[in-house]
Amino acid sequence: MPKKRSAASVAILAFTGLALSVMAATPASAGSCTQSQVIAVETIEGHFAMVDRMGSGREDRLINRDDLRVVASNSSVPNSVRSSVNYVLADDAFFNRIDRVRNPQLDGLINEDDLRTVCG
User: Fold this and answer.
1) Considering the entire predicted model, what is its pTM?
2) What is the CATH number of domain 31-118?
């Protein structure tokens, strides 16, 4: 004979099951970053204007791989920024994830909102 459960315990079990289902269905595009990814994204975001200007010579509020390569090769850029840029350049899947976090179209362009959103 099955155990009788109180209405409260049934509600908790139902809620827990629903929460687990929702968590399992949540895409990993935003909010699930490693500590290294978080550091890289926050560092680039904190120096966004410099990275943007240095890459293209003007501030257009967008950065791409070429911009990142220019920054990575410039010895006057702080090591923390160059390391973060190199980290993103070395991981194509992560660059693409940043690129597509707010717009599913892969265009090779990253803006500040993409950086703010990708790790939640």
Assistant:
1) 0.73
2) 1.10.238
